[in-house]
């Protein structure tokens, strides 16, 4: 029997696109694992260390970079964010699918290192809705919201680098579509190498070649 590894699905999108809510829906409903990132950003109200993020000082984060403990990292609006290696590889090696909810520079680093990984981009239906959601969320001050919307303008140019683009207009629909998409990724040629090898040698053995 082939032992199937889990797959990594990278999910990005503008700040306020609703990625977090979509990812929460995917984990609670379908049991996906989500990578817990390290960051130098200060915790928001209610966020817990080791659950939402591993909150680090700049010095600690730079030490992790030096020791190559991160799959990727990026600076986003004045803070570092990065994906710890151990957790992600542990999960996929035990057959679980892992979601990486990360921004675009990091997503492109992952694609470069692991071309078989699919990049999924979530967008709101339009810019006004993005700003609306950020204001409604109420977790950032107006100047940070402006910075995040401005960043979204720049980030549009990265959208063509993504394998899949998903509009988050209707949350329920978006979660269901994302689940179908991620499941289908198991069957891409690059994720089926073990199966290809097994079938090939089985057929040769069967025909006594
Ligand atoms: P927030 O401060 O809103 O939690 O996250 C800001 C941005 O950083 C989001 O776009 C989020 O997806 C991204 N992010 C979170 N963790 C990581 C990570 O480990 N690596 C990278 N490159 N981006 C991350």
Describe the structure.
With 209 residues, this protein is α/β, with parallel strands linked by helices. It has helices at residues 19-30, 58-66, 85-93, 104-113, 127-137, 142-155, 171-185, 193-206; strands spanning 8-13, 33-34, 38-39, 54-55, 70-76, 79-84, 98-101, 118-123, 164-167. The strands form 2 sheets. A 5-stranded parallel β-sheet has the order 2-7-1-8-9. Strand 5 and strand 6 form a beta hairpin. The two termini are 21 Å apart. The site of guanosine-5'-monophosphate has 13 residues, from strand 5 and strand 6.
How are the elements arranged and paired?
Blueprint: E1 8-13, H1 19-30, E2 33-34, E3 38-39, E4 54-55, H2 58-66, E5 70-76, E6 79-84, H3 85-93, E7 98-101, H4 104-113, E8 118-123, H5 127-137, H6 142-155, E9 164-167, H7 171-185, H8 193-206
Parallel strand pairs: 1-7, 1-8, 2-7, 3-4, 8-9
Antiparallel strand pairs: 3-6, 5-6
Helix pairs in contact: 1-7
The chain binds guanosine-5'-monophosphate (5GP).
Guanosine-5'-monophosphate is lined by residues 15, 37, 41, 72, 74, 76, 81-83, 101-103, 106.
For the biggest sheet, the summary is: 5 strands, parallel
Mean pLDDT: 93
- The geometry reads as globular
Hetero groups bound?
Answer: guanosine-5'-monophosphate
Helix and strand content put the structural class at: alpha/beta
| CA radius of gyration | 19 Å
Q: Which H/E pattern describes the elements?
A: EHEEEHEEHEHEHHEHH
SS strand fraction: 15-25%
Largest beta sheet: strand ordering: 2-7-1-8-9
């Amino acid at each position: 029997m082939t032992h199937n590894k889990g797959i990594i699905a990278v999910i990005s999108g503008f700040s306020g696109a609703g990625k977090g809510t979509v990812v929460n829906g995917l984990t609670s409903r379908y049991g996906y694992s989500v990578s817990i990132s390290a960051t130098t950003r200060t915790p928001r109200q209610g966020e817990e260390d080791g659950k939402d993020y591993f909150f680090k000082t700049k010095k600690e984060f730079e030490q992790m970079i030096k020791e190559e403990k991160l799959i990727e990292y990026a600076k986003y609006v004045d803070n570092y964010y990065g994906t710890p290696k151990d957790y992600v590889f542990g999960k996929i090696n035990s057959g679980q699918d892992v979601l990486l909810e990360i921004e675009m520079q990091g997503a492109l680093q992952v694609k470069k290192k692991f071309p078989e990984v699919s990049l999924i981009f979530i967008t709101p239906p339009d810019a006004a809705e993005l700003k609306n959601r950020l204001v409604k969320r109420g977790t950032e001050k107006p100047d940070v919201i402006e910075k995040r919307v401005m960043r979204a303008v720049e980030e549009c140019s990265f959208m063509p680098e993504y394998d899949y683009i998903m509009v988050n207009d209707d949350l329920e629909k978006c979660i269901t579509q994302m689940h179908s998409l991620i499941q289908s990724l198991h069957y891409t040629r690059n994720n089926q190498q073990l199966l290809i090898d097994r079938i090939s040698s089985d057929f040769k053995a069967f025909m006594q070649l």
